[in-house]
Write a structure and sequence with these properties.
homodimer; Nitrilase/N-carbamoyl-D-aminoacid amidohydrolase; Rossmann fold; 2 domains; 7-stranded mixed sheet; 38% helix; elongated
Chain lengths: 550, 550
């Protein structure tokens, strides 16, 4: 049996575009003489479609595309198509107004000869991290394999392979192979977990298996692809698809052995993460109609990293850095920013903010008889710069503003809302400051792309004379160690964290307080790619109004 | 039997503060000789606590407060305490890293004599609209009543009274009365639905019933209280608690009849909604440490309404309006804003933006050889004003910036991100423009509070010469009719909407497109009180990247 497995990149809501991609890949499969063509989870709608599934118009439009794809299947080549499948329609209770959701399932349709031969569904819904599947789907329980050309095919969808029950049921009903469509959002290191759980399923059932994942960026999360096949007689994958690229493979099932090609995966964590960030940014831009990006270049490490990623994602010629020095800017900041821009080949413009700040001081003083000072003056500078960045995007069509706050500073609120937080996308939203440095070092592995001086100088916001981050924050090694426990393990005991990190208890208490009271800044922050197990945003849902502290 | 029912306002995460409130109310119940003291849903944690429930530290701290409250119960007065109740602890799978959530239930503990006598739980979890209970809770199924002083008490929690099954089970197990703790977020008209579904439960079971709701604001939603009791021999409530205020009542159950006092409810929709908005704003401020508010006063109707609400919520002396005229501002705008401020008794400052805009023009021209024009110039003015508003909050402690975008303009993106969208809270986030006018008319019912001229002039952003909203947008009556179908019923067919509203199909198409492409602005918008069935924000989860159109 030949299985044509298509690791593709859909766009959420683009039913016609996604259907065209599916039809073209299916046609290639037919040409290759494939017996089965399979796509990742929710390939036709894109994943996750969220409340779009509450729209009757969306579901009707979806049915039209499904029907066309099913109609065009041949007798010889089956299509396994993952889509939401609804049984019945919404009913609204006449007096209470309560709406009964029709049972909509996260499904896979097994189609051939112009017909749907069987419907498969997901039982263990993805309802943690970034996903709310229980909001829109009902759990499916009628698991049964499909016999096709003498082979009994089980189709466990996504999280149904993370538990043994569904595969066990399929095996008990005769399944000889497991083909699993997935939409598994990336975090660093997740691929190893996926291989491991699939190895468990293969060992338990004695069935070879395909794990077929989506690839591409969608708002706050990204899919890494990395699809793979396993057989019972080998412990390592017998086929490996690319990370961060579309790839189609014609897998062959012979004598119970499933095999295909091996595309090399990224060599290390930082290569992997840099690809993740580039794909996240590229897809956010291209799927939303942006071809160019702009950002403030401060001469610091965060904006340097974002500029480097943007140049890779969009092409250096499509990236513009704005230098916006003030009286507090060091001369090396401007030099460093220019050196970076030269290394990358990106455009720059220089817009000094002294005159703006002077006009602001005069306006303010005229009403309040004093100039803005302290935090007011610091935030003001960030907001004037943020307004310049946005003006540049307004004046230049198809240009996205990028914001450059790392996870450490956003965690403790060391950033200005409506200032440096301005922007439609934040490529480094889920990188701690220490990780920003690690990634920069990796980018510089062969030659100096990010100028050495940017990496070696002490971090500074340069919003006050001789300011350093270390005036307000603990050392980033300490800060990040504390943040990881607080954010990724929800530990709120300063004593526990102090014990585990060696940090001073009062320092930890201050950090925990800063995390809590800055939830409002993160509520209004730009999206950015999830890279870790718990990213800020839809992945971590803390109330704004929250007085919990120990 | 005497039941002391406490409609109270907790703060999310404030375990000690909420516990003190519970203890004090319980003590009052004991003094009144109550047989039972009952509180609304999740009174001890506040509602909804979100991912706080993933924190072991939070759950341990919760247990401590629960144990103290239970320990202090007397033999004579039972305490019905709604809290998350966990069975077991988190387990993390050693190799996959998968975390098994312990079964945590949304529970009510029936306590007396220092002990928990029984545990009750919620089966139908609140997992739509603003809530994600299936993310944190498991459904409870062991429903059974508690016998207390000869009366069998059923305790169906919140959504368990919206279906008949749980009450039926309790009745079958002998329940003679239903006491239901609730955390039911407000939307206009919801109270009537609640009474109706409870009447159904009372009719089905023959049991009198108490519907006890939370009161108070929490981020994006508010609880209206409006608790009530029903008996089998009367169709109308036999007790009615206040809307928008804490209230405790000693209800008496005699011969199967449950009765209490009747506190008048708001007389009409607009009185109700204005109370909702005032409570939402007041609680957001006070629970987050703000005593004062500021906002830009444009002389338009949106900022006028927000100023009026803020004056009522925080006291006029704590509200400051900033007048920030430009060359495009009409003289009547300044006059109207001043007349409003005088009517309300709020502070004002005038900060003209000409000088700032001039400095911006010079800075821009120096680099790009032309002044900002068109949309760039329009957005710039909004961003300069937004920066002034934020500077004022930075310079004045405990001051919250209010933003004033109505639901109509935010729906179609007729607002500037990082400009007039600046602010920590938006009191009119969920009011369409036509509703803004209706509410203003109600506020002016006895005397002119919002100057007549503000209500009668044509809406204008005044960001360009002689600009009117109607230059860019259809008439607000048309726009709002279209928006209601698109947003509240997820209708994406321009033809369907055109047919239902009488609007031009192309106009509808343009509006639908604007809704879709402005999702990114709403993603970064401030929170504000949910007033309708579907509000923007956590209540409506559309992807940013979304190419769906018909």
């Amino acid at each position: 049996m030949k299985i044509f497995a298509c690791q593709l990149n859909p766009t959420v809501g683009d039913l016609k575009g996604n259907a065209a991609k599916i039809a073209a890949a299916y046609a290639r499969g037919v040409n290759f003489g494939a017996d089965v063509v399979i796509f990742p989870e929710m390939m036709l709608t894109g994943y996750l479609p969220g409340d779009l599934l509450f729209s009757e118009d969306f579901l009707v439009a979806l049915d039209i595309e499904v029907n066309k794809l099913v109609r065009d299947t041949t007798e010889d080549t089956a299509l396994i198509l993952s889509v939401p499948h609804r049984v019945g329609r919404h009913t609204t209770h006449a007096t209470t107004g309560l709406v009964d959701k029709p049972p909509t399932f996260n499904s896979a349709l097994f189609c051939a000869g112009g017909k749907v031969l069987s419907i498969h569904g997901k039982e263990h819904l993805f309802n943690y991290s970034v996903a709310d599947e229980k909001r829109v789907f009902a759990p499916y329980r009628g698991h049964a394999p499909q016999l096709w050309k003498g082979v009994s095919i089980g189709i466990p969808i996504c999280r149904d392979v993370w538990y043994s029950d569904v595969s066990d049921k399929l095996k008990a009903a005769g399944a000889e192979i497991l083909l699993s469509p997935n939409g598994s959002p990336y975090f660093s290191g997740k691929h190893e977990s996926r291989v491991q759980i699939m190895q468990n399923r293969v060992a338990e059932t004695g069935c070879p298996a395909l794990y077929l994942n989506l690839v591409g960026g969608q708002d706050d999360y990204i899919f890494d692809g990395c699809s793979f096949a396993l057989s019972t007689d080998e412990t390592k994958p017998t086929a490996q698809f690319a990370a961060w690229e579309e790839e189609e493979q014609l897998l062959v099932l012979e004598h119970g052995h499933l095999k295909g090609a091996h595309t090399p995966l990224p060599k290390n964590k930082w290569e992997d993460i840099s690809h993740a960030m580039v794909m996240g940014l590229k897809d956010y831009c291209h799927k939303n109609g942006f071809t160019k990006a702009t950002l403030g270049l401060s001469g610091g490490v965060d904006s340097a990293l974002v500029a480097a990623l943007a140049a890779e994602a969009l092409g250096a010629e499509n990236v513009t850095g704005l230098l916006m020095p003030s009286d507090y800017s060091s001369s090396h900041s401007v030099d460093d920013a220019n050196a970076l821009a030269k290394n990358l080949g990106i455009h720059t413009h220089t817009l000094p903010i002294q005159a703006l700040k002077g006009a602001f001081d005069t306006t303010w003083e005229g009403t309040f008889s004093e100039k803005p000072s302290g935090l007011t003056e610091q935030n003001l500078q960030a907001r004037l710069r943020g307004s310049l960045v946005m003006a540049f995007t307004n004046a230049n069509a198809s240009t996205l503003a990028l914001t450059t706050g790392n996870k450490s500073e956003v965690a403790v609120g060391y950033c200005t809302l409506y200032g440096d937080m301005n922007g439609g996308y934040n490529p480094i939203k889920d990188l701690y400051k220490t990780e920003v440095f690690e990634l920069c070092a990796w980018i510089n592995r062969d030659k100096e792309i990010i100028p050495h001086n940017i990496l070696s100088k002490a971090p500074s916001a340069e919003l006050a004379p001789d300011q350093k981050d270390s005036d307000s924050l603990p050392d980033y090694n300490v800060l990040d160690a504390v943040l990881k426990l607080a954010i990724e393990q929800n530990i709120w005991s300063a004593e526990t964290i102090a014990k585990q990190t060696g940090a001073n208890t009062q320092v930890v208490k201050d950090i925990l307080r800063l995390i809590r009271i800055n939830e409002y800044k993160r509520y209004q922050a730009a999206p950015g790619p999830k890279l870790s197990k718990i990213a800020f945003g839809v992945d971590r849902r803390y109330p704004l109004t929250n007085k919990f502290s120990l």
